[in-house]
Amino acid sequence: FFLESPHSMPFTVLAGASAAAKALAPTACTTIEEVGSTGVGALTLGFLALAVSTVVMVAKAASADQERRKYYFCNTFICGVATFAYFAMLSGQGWTAIAGCRQFFYTRYADWVVTTTLLVILLGQVSNASMDVIFGACGSNLIYVLAGYMGSVSVVTTVKWFWFLIGLVGLACVIMHFAQTFKVSADAKGGELAALYGKVAWLSILVWICYPVVWLFSEGFASFSVSFEVCAYSVLDIISKVVVCFMVMSGSEFLSGEGGAQSREYV
Fold first, then answer.
1. CA-to-CA distance for 145 and 167, rounded, in angstroms?
2. Which residues are CB-neighbours of 79 under 8 A, at least 6 positions away?
3. How sure is the predictor about 65, in pLDDT bands with cuts at 50, 70 and 90?
4. Are 78 and 56 in contact (CB under 8 A)?
5. pLDDT tens across 128-160, in order?
6. Distance CA 232, CA 216 (A)
7. Nearest to 138 by CA among 161, 162, 114, 111
8. 16 backbone dihedrals φ, ψ, rounded to 5°
C-alpha cells in the first residue's frame, strides 16, 4: 500500500481544475468572426487621428515652458502609445480567438494599461492633486483594465462575470477620484483651472462609463459584431484621448503654478 504524499495534493487539485476548464471550454473554431471593412475604416480613422495628435503634442511640447511641458509630454505619450496599438490592429497583429469564436484584440488592453494610467495622471496633474492620491487612482485603474482583460479571455462563464464585477469596482474607484477627490483639489485652486478640470473630468467620466457597456455586449454577451465593437471602441478612444488632450492643451494658460485667477490679467 502506498500513501499519497500531502505535497502532491495541490497538483491533484490543479489537474482537476484544469480538466474542468477544458470540459467547459468551447470547441475548436472552424470559422472566426473577424473585423470587417467598417471596422477597418474605424481603425484607420482612429490611427490617423491619434497619429496627427501625437505630432501636434510633440510640437507644442518643444515650445512650451517647463511648467506646461509636463502636460504636453503626458498628452504625447497618451496619443503616441494608442497610435502604436491602432497600427498593430490595422496590421492584423495582437489578436486571438476567444469564446464564441470572436476576434479579440488584446493589443487594445496593452494600450489601455499605459494610456488610461497616463490619463489618470494627466487629470490628477490638472487638478493639482497630491501624488499619493494620483497613485491610488492609478492602482484602481489598473485593476479595472486587467480585470476586463481577464474577463475577455475567460472560457468559464461564472469566472468571466466575476472578473467583470471586479473591473466595475475598479472603475467606480477611478470615477470617485475624478468626481470627488481630484475635484476638491481643483476647487481649492479655483478660477479657470477649476472650470477646465470640471469640463475635462465630466467628459472623461461619461466616456469611461461607456467602455464597460460596450464590453458587456461585445466580449460579454457577444451581441455586437466584431466590427461594431471596433467602431465603438474607436469612437470612445478618440474622445477619451484626442479630445481630452486637446481640451487640456486649450487651457494651458491656466495650468501654470500661479492658478487660474491671475492668468486672466494677461489676457
1. 7
2. 50, 51, 53, 54, 57, 241, 242, 245
3. confident
4. no
5. 999 999 999 999 999 999 999 999 999 999 999
6. 12
7. 114
8. -65, -40
Residues 236 and 207: beta-carbon distance below 8 Å: yes
Whether residue 245 contacts residue 77, with contact meaning beta carbons closer than 8 Å, is answered with no
HEC assignment per residue over 162-204: HHHHHHHHHHHHHHHHHHHHHHHHHHHHCHHHHHHHHHHHHHH
* Distance, first Cα to last Cα, the chain: 91
The closest of 219, 221, 156, 161 to 25, measured between CA atoms, is 156
At 102 the three-state DSSP class reads strand
Residue 46 φ then ψ, to 5°: -65, -45
User: How far apart (Å, rounded) are the C-alpha atoms in residues 143 and 65?
Assistant: 35
d(CA 18, CA 10): 12
Q: What is the pTM of this model?
A: 0.86
Residue type, 142: L
Taking the CB of residue 56, how many other CB atoms lie within 10 A of it? 18
